[in-house]
Design a protein that fits this description.
It is a single chain. By secondary structure, the chain is of the alpha/beta class. It folds into 2 domains: 251 residues, Rossmann fold (3-Layer(aba) Sandwich), CATH 3.40.50; 70 residues. It is built from 13 helices and 7 strands. It has a 7-stranded mixed sheet with strand order 3-2-1-4-5-7-6, with helices on both faces. The chain starts with 12 loop residues before the first helix and ends in a 32-residue tail after the last helix.
């Protein structure tokens, strides 16, 4: 199947949305490791780097990476681990332009090591994979053109890497259009029974929710996603991290932009610029669904501590603040006794996090 070249004209709004999410996550991710004494290297890998800018000069992922490193160092980086950035671009003309862009960036980032490679994805991934081991913190940005590169075997390698977060793009509209073709299906975790549920709006959400099937048994790993509308089609990003802080920060970025989509994915008809007279009508469907699910899990006795609830929220693409609001609603509705809820990032570290108090017989 022919691939559309994003760099033949200025970036459209959907591409800019994708790059803005990448920028904002970098802005959250970099300070975590700038002062980290437990790592020797902070590394960013951009496997589909492109030329660095679009034809109108708008920064692509390579320049965004350089901008955010520069900003992080100016604010936090008097002392920091070694910083290494890897860019790969297969196309010869784009690679030449990328190299020129990075040569210019080196002048203002002498403390950063830049490595550029012109290779296909699988070759560069195989060559750089060993560099992601040991006392390193890694962020992988994989802006593939279709669905062929992030295979099950590649996914399983990445999720096993220590201290590694990933953001990858998937052409969900292509997956929806050709979902019955074997060459597409083999690279997707979707089940046969879910094919009939796919539609234009929900395809990326369904695909992202299917990736946990590829997580090796016994491995704790968190998946997040963001659907991006472009005309009549929907594409999107999938995020992965082995640490609660990683998914927490991604979700904080995502919720600044609507939660898990840059459009009204649930057809709520909610306009945040024109709230209704009744706040309940302004609550997105995804929040209402989460509140019901959380209520059931608590009243059935499956979630017993603040830690349980925090992790449940992350696994469902929600913030700790959503969980606290849901718990306070249960108190308001007299389904839980009045109490303080310490649902926040620090909760995950406490094996004996405070138990949520239940009424006797609730949910029976």
């Amino acid at each position: 199947m022919p691939r559309r070249d994003l760099h033949l004209k200025p970036f459209d709004e959907s591409t800019r949305d994708k790059l803005e999410l990448y920028r904002e996550y970098l802005r959250e991710w970099l300070p975590v490791f700038i002062h980290a004494s437990y790592i020797d290297r902070l590394q960013i890998f951009d496997f589909f780097a492109g030329p660095g800018i679009d034809i109108s000069g708008t920064p692509g992922s390579p320049l965004i990476t350089c901008d955010e490193i520069r900003n992080a160092l100016s604010q936090h980086g008097k002392q920091h681990p070694k910083i290494k950035v890897y860019f790969n671009e297969c196309n010869a003309a784009k690679f030449k332009q990328l190299s020129e862009c990075i040569d210019e960036q080196k002048k203002s980032l002498p403390q950063v090591d830049f490595i550029t490679m012109r290779n296909d994805f699988h070759s560069s991934f195989e060559q750089w994979q060993s560099l992601m081991q040991g006392k390193t913190a890694n962020l992988l940005f994989l802006d593939q053109s279709g669905v062929q590169q992030i295979t099950e075997s590649v996914f399983k390698v990445i999720v096993r890497l220590p201290k590694t977060d990933m953001i990858f793009f998937i052409s969900s509209a292509l997956a929806n259009r050709f979902k019955k073709k074997p060459e597409i299906r083999k690279n997707l975790p979707i089940r046969d029974e879910d094919l009939g549920l796919m539609n234009r709006s929900n395809v990326h959400r369904l695909l992202a929710n299917a990736y946990p099937r590829w997580i090796p048994e016994g491995l704790k790993y968190y998946i997040g996603s963001f659907s991006i509308e472009k005309g009549a089609n929907v594409y999107g990003l999938v995020f992965g991290s082995g640490h609660p802080l990683g998914i927490d920060k991604f979700l904080q970025v995502a919720w600044k932009h609507g939660g898990d989509a840059n459009f009204d994915i649930d057809d709520d008809g909610i306009d945040p610029k024109q709230p209704s007279l009744f706040s309940e009508f302004d609550k997105p469907k995804k929040i209402k669904v989460f509140e019901k699910a959380l209520e059931k899990e608590i009243l059935d006795g499956h979630l017993k501590t603040n830690k349980d609830i925090y992790i449940f929220a992350l696994q469902n693409g929600m913030l700790a603040s959503h969980a606290k609001d849901a718990l306070n609603l249960l108190v308001k509705n007299e389904k839980l006794p009045k109490q303080k809820f310490h649902v926040l990032y620090g909760a995950w570290k406490k094996p004996d996090a405070e138990t949520i108090m239940h009424f006797n017989g609730v949910g029976k």
